[in-house]
Structures are given as structure tokens and as C-alpha cells.
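Researcher: Quick test of sequence recovery. C-alpha cells follow.
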């Protein structure tokens, strides 16, 4: 009889995409000494399982196509009955690992309103998606995932939870090269880069190793999690106990007929600080009355409440229609048919602000949509405080953000799977110390390539998008410094960067324009991974030269032809003299260079471009409509 131990890794399962045109490793586990036979596409390979039961064979390169069927069998040394595993619906194509933090995670469902047609057009049975389950481990680099399966991206319904950037990226490659594309998404919101790095690659950062050493204490981790959960539970329990609006002693405030005539007025959207409640922690109840004509009453509707800090529960005519438990997702709630009526209707929202910076985010949609019509919900609302908490919600430890944890749980299990390249979207979580990012990023890229045993593994990444309110005066920026580190990482071979300073939103750290990002990543792939002779990047700063009272900025070749994207004078250039004080500058394109000056500075020494968290209106591009990456010519702190 066989050993009853034959097993394949989670990645090698029904629907898998195997990397085309490369020697591909098929591996797994069986009983020690078992003879394992692997058959696929006319190939037959045999090997013996080692002392630990692990075995592997190398397939000869497969051309793009399929579907194929993989048969794996194992026979024990006694020659008894064989075990067998059959893997079906295999395609050969290009496999990309997509990793990073929340902007790589942001799901298709969140951008559906903007890109419904593009999402539908992106769907194909020849695009397959594997979501790596979230897991951290501080002591062991895992050799397999704890779950996950390959899903065919053939309908919009199937892809709603998938990474929007990854889907658009895959669709571009599939359409351009007519090959199957496999996406392995291994991303975790809020994660700093050190969480994705191995312990050995963090050797130059003793503070990260010290933090990792603490996290290796299982008792400490479990006790901290238990204490944090208890503290948060007590905070919310106390809040609910104090909140009269929940109806513990009287009619709940969300009831349809509840009298709000003595509530105060507030204009929505607004922050609590702007409404005179700076630092408020607790619950606030808000109500808005809106009218519907008879022709729209009773229809299914969509209620949009922008973005709310921090969490909310929302009711229409006294009936709960939805809730979101944290600050970032847009509020989009379905109002079921039959709930609204002709004439007056009410929206009631209970907002819990747990960190002292609550409110409704401006420049977001606040409306009811039904029957092709919209009802505006901005403006005057009624409100009453439900409960005041003396302190913010207790801070908790996010262990999934600690050094090496995500690498061990979510990247190490992928290393034996042959891939085409990496697409990376991360950096927001490291903007507090941007001066460290370049060395961390370079080390991570090199260590991942070493682990995959592919020295020239294409590594593509997204430069941080624009965010926060635009500054009216020149100044410094942590986000700009991190973008600079990302730009400098291009010194590593086989890397490429998609600039996204025009694809963000000032009021959303998770901007919705994932289509632009996905397309630009694919354009970078066309060059870096597929060797096309194309302009794939916006202008990248190379050097400066002083000519009188002007500084001439030169860019790396090929530039692609400099243009002002809107035809207006160049914006977002600043210049400094010996006093190192930057002021707004004039700039003009001169061939493949840009001349920068300010008539008040006779001896300029440095120039900066788009050096801000949100360089809104930065308009230097090339003729391929790709934005210039922000830069500075100085290295002042």
C-alpha cells in the first residue's frame, strides 16, 4: 500500500497557471522513500521522496496554452497500491506575484461605479487569481499556504473581491500578448515593508530584529492580543452602556417616529473639529429628512454617505441598511425595495469616533440614487451626542505588521513556484521614516530574487500617489521623500516604476483610480519583463546645471518628449538660493530639458519639482502622457 501522505502545495491545484517557457518545479510531500511519478502534457518524470517526505521534479518548458491535466502518483517501497492526485484545468502563461499594502488589496467592488465597463472587459477565463490567506509567523518560514484556491476571472461577479490593480494589470498583459495570466495576490493593509522581509535580510536593522525577537515569544503575543481585545471590548461596552440613543431606557433614536426637534443643527460633510467638537471620542447620532416623489418611492435605491471617521451604523426610515466598522471604505448601502415612500423619508446615522478626529469627509458623494434620479443629502442635518468617552479607544498591537511575520507566512511559501515577476504597491506605512526606505527596499528586492533563485526577476512597483490637501506654499514632505527613495531604487537592474502622482485623491488614502495604476504597471512590464522598445516611464531626473540665474534640469534617456499636459505654464517647480529657502519658480521646456528660475534669486543652487504630499496640478509629462516623477536636486534634510 502507499503511504497515504501524498500532498501538493496549495498553489498547485485545479485552475493553476504554470509559468510558460521556463523550467517549472512541481513539488510536494509523500512518505519517505516513496517513488513519485508526475505526468503532464506528454511529459513523465519520476523521483524519490526524501527523508522529510519532500520531493520535486522539473518540467520541461511549456508553451502558453492549455488546459492541461497533471497526474501525480506515489508508490511506497513495498510496491503496493499507488496514491494519486489529479490537478485539472491547468494553463501555461505568465504568473505575477502582486504584493504590498491596502492599495494593492483595494477590491474591484470599490471601483465598480467608476469602471464597470473596464471591469467587464477585463474578465477572462484565461486570467486566474489566487488570494494568499493572511498569516504571520515570527519563527518559521512556511513551506506551504494554509488555504487558497485558483479562481477563473471570467465574470464580474467572481472578481468583486479581487485586487483592482492586479485585475487591470493582468487584463492589459492578457490582451497585449494573448496569453494566460496568473495573479498571486499576497497583500495586507497597513503593512510596512519590514513585515515582508526575511529575518536574515533585516540584519542591518537591529531595531527591527529586536522587535522581531520580542514577537517570537508566543506567550507575549497571545497575552497581548487577549489584553488588547479585552480593552477594546470594554471601551465599546462602556460606550454602548452610556449611549441613550440605543434605546436601553427609552425609544431608540433611530426609530422612524423619534422626535428630533430639540436636536442641534450641523452641516454635513464636516469634521467634528470644524463643528466645534475637537478631539471628540464617543457616539454621535445624525438625522436627515429627504423627500421622494411618488414615482420614485418604494424603489430599490443606493444610499451613499461618502466616507465616515471612524465607524457607522445607518438606518432608513428606522430600518438598518448597513454599517462599516472602520474609517476607510466608502459608504454605499442598498435601500431595499418597499422601504421608502412618497414624501418625507429619514436617514439616521450613528457615528462612533474612537480616535478624536472624526467626521464626514468632504468632496465625497452624499446622496440617494434611485430610478435614475439623485437626492442630495449634503447640507443641514440634526444631531445629538449619544455618549462621550473620556479617552480614545485603547491602541492595539498589529502583529501582522511586525518584522518578518508576513514574509514567513505569505511570501516564503511562494518561492518554489516559478513566476514571471513581481508587482509591488506599498510605502504609505513607511512615510514616518522615509530616509530608511531606500535601503530596506533594495534589500527586500535582492533577497526576494535570491529566494526565487532568479537574479533578474522583474520587479515593478507603484510610486506613492498624491494625497492630503495641497499646500499653498513650498515645504517639505515625508511622502515626497519616500517617492524619492522609490525613484532611486531604479538603480537596481530589472526594476521599473509606475508614477501615480496624478492618480490619487486628496481626501482618500485609497484612491479609486486603480485603472490608471494597473495600466501603467503593465506598461512598465512591457519594457522590463517583455523587452519592448517603448516609452514606459515619465521623465526621471538625472542632473542639473546652473546657467546664470537659471538651473537647467536634465532627465534620463529616453525622455519621450517633454510637454505640459494641459498646455499651461509648468507648475510645482520651486527654487532656492544659498539661504536654502525654496520659493515658487517659473519653468519652461527647452528641448529635452527644463529651465527653472525666479527673478528674485540671482544665484540659485537647488530646484525641486512636485515636492509635496499632494502636488496637485503638477503638469510636466512626456508625449506618452506619463507624468514626471517628483525630484529634488538637493540632499538637504
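Model:
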Amino acid at each position: 500500500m502507499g503511504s497515504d501522505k501524498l500532498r501538493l502545495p496549495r498553489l498547485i491545484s485545479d485552475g493553476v497557471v504554470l509559468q510558460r517557457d521556463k523550467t517549472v518545479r512541481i513539488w510536494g510531500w509523500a512518505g519517505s522513500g516513496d517513488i513519485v511519478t508526475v505526468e503532464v502534457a506528454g511529459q513523465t518524470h519520476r523521483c524519490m521522496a526524501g527523508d522529510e517526505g519532500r520531493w520535486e521534479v522539473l518540467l520541461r518548458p511549456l508553451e502558453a496554452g492549455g488546459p492541461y491535466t497533471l497526474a501525480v502518483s506515489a508508490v511506497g517501497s513495498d510496491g503496493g497500491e499507488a496514491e494519486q492526485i489529479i490537478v485539472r484545468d491547468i494553463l501555461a502563461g505568465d504568473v505575477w506575484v502582486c504584493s504590498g499594502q491596502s492599495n494593492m488589496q483595494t477590491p474591484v467592488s470599490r471601483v465598480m461605479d467608476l469602471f464597470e465597463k473596464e471591469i467587464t472587459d477585463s474578465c477572462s477565463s484565461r486570467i486566474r487569481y489566487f488570494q494568499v490567506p493572511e498569516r504571520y509567523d515570527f519563527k518559521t518560514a512556511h513551506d506551504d499556504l494554509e488555504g487558497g484556491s485558483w479562481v477563473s476571472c471570467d465574470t464580474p461577479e467572481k472578481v468583486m473581491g479581487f485586487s483592482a490593480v492586479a485585475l487591470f494589470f493582468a487584463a492589459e498583459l492578457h490582451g497585449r500578448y494573448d496569453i494566460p495570466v496568473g495573479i498571486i495576490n499576497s497583500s495586507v493593509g497597513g503593512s510596512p515593508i519590514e513585515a515582508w522581509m526575511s529575518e536574515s535580510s533585516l540584519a542591518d536593522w537591529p531595531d527591527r530584529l529586536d522587535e522581531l525577537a520580542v514577537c517570537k515569544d508566543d506567550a507575549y503575543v497571545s497575552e497581548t492580543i487577549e489584553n488588547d481585545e479585552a480593552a477594546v471590548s470594554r471601551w465599546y461596552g462602556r460606550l454602548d452602556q452610556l449611549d441613550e440613543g440605543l434605546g436601553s431606557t427609552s425609544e431608540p433614536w433611530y426609530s422612524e417616529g423619534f422626535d428630533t426637534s430639540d436636536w442641534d443643527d450641523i452641516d454635513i460633510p464636516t469634521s467634528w473639529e470644524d463643528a466645534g467638537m475637537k478631539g471628540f471620542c464617543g457616539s454621535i447620532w445624525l438625522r436627515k429628512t429627504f423627500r421622494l416623489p411618488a414615482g420614485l418611492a418604494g424603489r430599490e435605491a443606493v444610499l451613499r454617505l461618502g466616507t465616515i471617521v471612524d465607524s457607522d451604523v445607518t438606518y432608513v426610515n428606522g430600518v438598518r441598511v448597513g454599517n462599516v466598522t472602520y474609517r476607510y471604505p466608502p459608504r454605499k448601502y442598498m435601500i431595499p425595495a418597499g422601504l421608502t415612500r412618497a414624501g418625507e423619508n429619514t436617514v439616521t446615522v450613528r457615528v462612533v469616533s474612537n480616535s478624536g478626529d472624526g467626521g464626514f469627509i468632504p468632496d465625497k458623494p452624499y446622496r440617494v440614487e434611485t430610478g435614475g434620479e439623485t437626492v442630495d443629502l449634503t447640507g443641514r442635518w440634526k444631531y445629538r451626542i449619544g455618549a462621550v468617552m473620556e479617552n480614545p479607544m485603547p491602541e492595539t498591537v498589529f502583529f501582522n505588521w511586525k518584522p518578518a511575520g508576513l514574509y514567513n507566512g505569505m511570501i516564503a511559501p511562494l518561492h518554489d513556484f516559478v513566476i514571471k515577476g513581481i508587482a509591488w504597491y506599498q510605502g504609505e506605512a513607511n512615510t514616518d521614516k522615509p530616509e530608511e526606505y531606500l535601503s530596506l527596499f533594495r534589500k527586500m528586492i535582492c533577497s526576494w530574487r535570491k529566494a526565487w533563485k532568479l537574479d533578474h526577476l522583474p520587479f515593478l512597483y507603484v510610486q506613492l500617489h498624491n494625497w492630503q490637501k495641497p499646500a499653498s506654499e513650498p515645504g517639505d514632505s515625508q511622502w515626497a521623500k519616500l517617492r524619492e527613495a522609490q525613484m532611486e531604487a531604479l538603480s537596481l537592474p530589472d526594476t521599473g516604476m509606475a508614477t501615480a502622482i496624478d492618480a490619487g485623491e486628496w481626501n482618500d488614502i485609497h484612491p479609486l483610480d486603480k485603472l490608471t495604476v494597473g495600466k501603467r504597471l503593465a506598461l512598465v512590464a512591457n519594457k522590463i519583463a517583455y523587452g519592448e522598445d517603448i516609452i514606459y516611464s515619465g521623465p526621471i531626473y538625472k542632473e542639473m546645471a546652473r546657467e546664470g540665474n537659471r538651473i537647467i534640469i536634465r532627465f534620463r534617456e529616453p525622455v519621450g518628449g517633454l510637454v505640459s499636459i494641459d498646455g499651461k505654464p509648468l507648475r510645482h517647480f520651486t527654487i532656492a538660493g544659498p539661504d536654502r529657502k525654496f520659493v515658487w519658480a517659473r519653468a519652461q521646456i527647452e528641448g529635452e530639458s527644463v529651465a527653472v528660475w525666479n527673478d528674485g534669486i540671482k544665484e540659485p543652487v537647488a530646484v525641486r519639482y512636485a515636492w509635496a504630499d499632494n502636488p496637485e496640478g503638477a503638469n510636466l509629462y512626456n508625449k506618452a502622457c506619463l507624468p514626471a516623477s517628483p525630484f529634488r536636486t538637493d540632499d538637504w534634510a
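The longest strand covers residues 83-100.
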